[in-house]
Specification:
It is built from 18 helices and 25 strands. It is of the alpha+beta class.
């Protein structure tokens, strides 16, 4: 079962992928990568893969499912070498098939090339068409394979002039050539015969950080992947930066100048694991501060605060601290329902949310409840959760959301639905309240969200808030804005 088949259990956006890379001579890099991916499992539950290199040849294993389902001891043993990259996938571009699992691995004139990609290229259709016109055969439907092919053989028209500063590293030059024509979001972990490269788009839309081992270096989507393998956090990969990890240590290059920063603000709201650090601050603290602002802006007379587990727990703690209302658990969560490959039958599907949550009646009986959630996307679980609290004995249920209404889809590597699916794009707040059956409904304001971030992180150069505001930091093609993806699938230009 892929994550899409569990939509009846979840109303959350899904980040496309988690990426990981390690250069560590003398270490079992496949095992390090396994545990790094295990820590990044929240960023993609559809497929997983690891590619290694010993400086001569590359080895790879990938499959559908969770990291623990794809890899057993016998799968790790053949993955030899001192270089490795890994990937967890949740599909946004390209469907749920093994052929779309990453890392991609091909042989080039300069040896093996492996690519792990988090993000989405908004000009992927144009790049794919150009590759096909050049006679490049593509075996998958993802923009990530196009990235791999462009790095392997940049088209003459893209490599006609010297690229930014003329590095002696041929792979840096090829990465720069790719960055010149790529539009959209990309954080990359790239494996070659001799090095790992970490690459981040000039806007810094998707996160990427660096860590250090005694024997080498690590790159990962989040810092939570560093502690389990004994690595220490160094810093974020800067927007537009290329970082090479090899026997010479860590070397930085300018890939593309960064004139504006636009880290996805939803990393703070929901995506990142609460124990991860971004911009030097722990995500849990930022979410607590969002909860405090939510209480200031949307206070209501009530008896207890409960959070939708587990993502809304930090927000709920902050709300409780600011409001003075006691925080308690309102639900017991079955944390393994999303890990089964057995499809529920129609009766279980109709029961829906009861498969995942059970109300704690002893905590709820006779109580006026403030239920905190981090976000509402399609609105297909908020109503059942409100009803569960009522079934558990709550006399009132007031829903508070620790982010602004999501009114616009994301095209930069997040599965954020379409305009016709987003409930806040089609209903006002009062209509949403009636739809979900809450006694009241209020959201955190945009200004409150950013002030909460500023209180913890300090003044920062910029974030992408397009899902809330519709202000996209890059040009979005009309076919994406108009939900014409099905037409492109039919024409064979875009992957199903």
């Amino acid at each position: 079962m892929t994550q899409q088949t569990l939509d009846f259990l979840s109303d959350k956006p899904h980040d496309e992928c988690g990426v990981f890379g390690v250069y560590a001579p003398g270490r079992d890099v496949a095992r390090l990568t396994f545990f790094g991916l295990y820590a990044l499992q929240h960023r993609g539950q559809e497929s997983a893969g690891i590619t290694t290199s010993d400086g001569y040849q590359a080895f790879s294993h990938k499959g559908m499912g969770l990291v623990s389902q794809v890899f057993k001891e016998d799968d790790l043993k053949p993955l030899q070498g001192h270089l490795a990259i890994g990937h967890n996938r949740y599909s946004t571009t390209g469907s749920s098939h093994l052929r779309n699992a990453q890392p991609y691995l091909i042989e080039t004139i300069y040896g093996p090339l492996g690519v792990s990609h988090n993000g989405n290229l908004t000009n992927a259709v144009d790049l794919r068409r150009t590759l096909l016109e050049r006679g490049v055969g593509l075996s998958s439907t993802t923009d990530s394979e196009s990235i791999t092919q462009i790095l392997a053989a940049p088209p003459d028209v893209w490599a006609r002039k010297p690229i930014n500063g003329g590095s002696s590293d041929r792979w840096v030059e090829r990465i720069r050539a790719f960055m010149e024509i790529a539009e959209g979001a990309y954080s990359l972990a790239i494996l070659t015969r001799d090095a790992i490269y970490a690459v981040r788009d000039p806007l810094g839309l998707r996160p990427l950080c660096l860590g250090q081992l005694e024997e080498g270096y690590v790159v990962a989507s989040e810092s939570c992947a560093l502690n389990p393998i004994g690595a220490t956090y160094l810093r974020e990969v800067e927007p537009g930066e290329i970082v090479r990890l090899d026997l010479n240590g860590l070397t930085s290059f300018v890939g593309q100048p960064s004139t504006r920063r636009a880290l996805c603000v939803f990393e703070y709201v929901y995506f990142a694991r609460p124990d991860s650090a971004m911009e030097g601050e722990v995500i849990h603290q930022i979410r607590q501060q969002m909860g405090r602002y939510l209480a200031r802006e949307t206070g209501v007379e009530a008896d207890i605060v409960v959070g939708v587990p587990d993502s809304a727990t930090p927000h709920s703690i902050g709300y409780s601290q600011e409001s003075g209302l006691p925080y308690t658990e309102g639900f017991t969560k079955n944390r393994y329902i999303g890990r089964t490959f057995i499809q529920p039958d129609d009766t279980l599907r109709r029961q829906g949310i009861q498969l995942k949550y059970t109300p704690l009646t002893t905590n709820l009986a006779g109580k006026r409840v403030v239920m905190i959630d981090d976000s509402i996307v399609r609105g297909n679980t908020a109503g059942p959760l409100v009803q569960l609290l009522r079934d558990g004995g709550a006399t009132e249920v007031h829903l508070r959301v620790a982010s602004p209404p999501i009114r616009h889809p994301c095209f930069m590597g997040v599965d954020m639905a379409t305009y016709k699916e987003l409930i806040a794009a089609n209903m006002d707040i009062e209509s949403i309240r009636q739809h979900i059956g809450a006694d009241s409904l209020q959201y955190l304001s945009m200004s409150g969200m950013f002030q909460a971030i500023k209180d913890v992180v300090g003044e920062q150069p910029g974030y992408c808030n397009a899902c809330f505001s519709g202000d996209y930091p890059i040009n979005i093609p009309d076919w994406l804005l108009n939900d014409e993806r099905d037409k492109l699938i039919f024409e064979g230009i875009w992957g199903a």
